[in-house]
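WARN no homologs supplied; continuing
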Amino acid sequence: MSVVILGGNECMERNYCDLCKKFGCSAKVFCKPCANIRDRVGSPDLVILFTNTVSHKIVRSVVDNLDKDTALVRSHSSSMASLQKILDESTREAGAATA
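OK structure emitted
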């Protein structure tokens, strides 16, 4: 499963990626705006928005161009516990869908 995380704390980027790996997911993390973010996101299975720490510019440019099959989860908290809960639920649902 491919995951894109928008927002969060820059100092936690590596931790976010490591936690995603533990769940068997490949992750891209964008904490701040960057050039061509739309192209860099690609077509992930799951997009996680940390709404407290993401800019509106990033949200608009990415969400407007998502595939209809991409799941979108919004979380106000950008903590590791919050990410773990989201990944646990999402990977469980993905596993149930394939079984």
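The helical segments are 13-22, 37-41, 56-63, 80-98.
OK
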